[in-house]
Amino acid sequence: MPFEPCYIKTFETGELKERIKALYKMLENCTICPRNCKVNRIKDELGFCKVGKDSFISSVGPHFGEEPELVGRSGSGTIFLTQCNLKCIFCQNYDISHLGMGREVSLEELADSMIYLQKIGCHNINFVTPTHQVPQIIAALEIAIKKGLNLPLVYNTGGYDSVETLKLLDGIFDIYMPDFKYWDPQVSKKYSKAPDYPEVARQVFKEMFRQVGDLVIDERGIALRGLLVRHLVLPEGLAGTKGVMHFIATELSKNTYVNIMDQYRPCYKAPENPPLDRRISYEEYKEAVEIALAEGLHRGFPH
């Protein structure tokens, strides 16, 4: 039986339309993310993320640098959303997330971007940094479904999301791909202006796992549904890998797919903030992998 994305049923029952209404209501006194700026984005008042009522995107296209289970043979269909609610000082996409590189698009155009990615053969629609633009994404999704969209949706986030918002996405996203960035609130405060990040992320990951469970991969090796966790190893253990891996193994599942990433490089303001001014060593990466293995984790990282 062919795979059907969960949003099809949500659309057919009329529930998707109700979710869109609820999400846009949240924009009137914005609580879409944990920043809770309380600005009226419907009237284009700007909060931390600097995005009003319309969607802003940076680029659309197949991506071959994502996890193999997303890329397959034809690529992950990425839509890079402009701006962000974290503003990490070492962001590798800082021109998009900090400097706002991108353009305003209508819901119709955003929907057409999804259809385009499907037509060229991408395996999924991968929304990169979607947190602050969830209402616009879901409103555009309704249009795209009417045009024949039938690919899994990927929620590719930094992990600083609102559980209330995520509950409105239950039955819409098949794949959640959050990055668990930090375990220490002092570190998240210093580098991302989010002292509550670790606690927020723990609740977010539990909600995502509740919705979709462990990652399910088909006979082609392509991800269809589930949680895929990213963890970027930072110099001198700043990411708090031990705490993160213990949480995943004990609070989620030892079968959680975890991508322990070694590609940290000093970008944006990182060169001015030691020890973020250097790449990680082989030993630091090896230690992170060994921590994960010791916790019983075994999917998604080299070992």
Commentary on this structure:
By secondary structure, this protein is an alpha/beta fold. The chain has one domain (6-294): TIM Barrel (Alpha-Beta Barrel), CATH 3.20.20.70. Helices cover 36% and strands 16% of the residues. It is built from eleven helices and nine strands. Strands 1, 2, 3, 4, 5, 6, 7, 8 and 9 form a nine-stranded mixed β-sheet that branches. The longest helix has 16 residues, at 197-212. The relative contact order is 0.13.
Short summary of the structure?
This protein has eleven helices and nine strands.
Q: Could you give a short account of the major beta sheet?
A: 9 strands, mixed
Tell me the radius of gyration. Answer: 18 Å
What is the element string, with H for helices and E for strands? HHEHEHEHEHEHEHHEEHEH
Looking at the structure, the CATH topology is TIM Barrel
What oligomeric state best describes the polypeptide chains here? single chain
* CATH superfamily descriptor: Aldolase class I
The overall pLDDT average reads: 97
Number of structural units classed as domains: 1
Q: Report the structural category.
A: alpha/beta
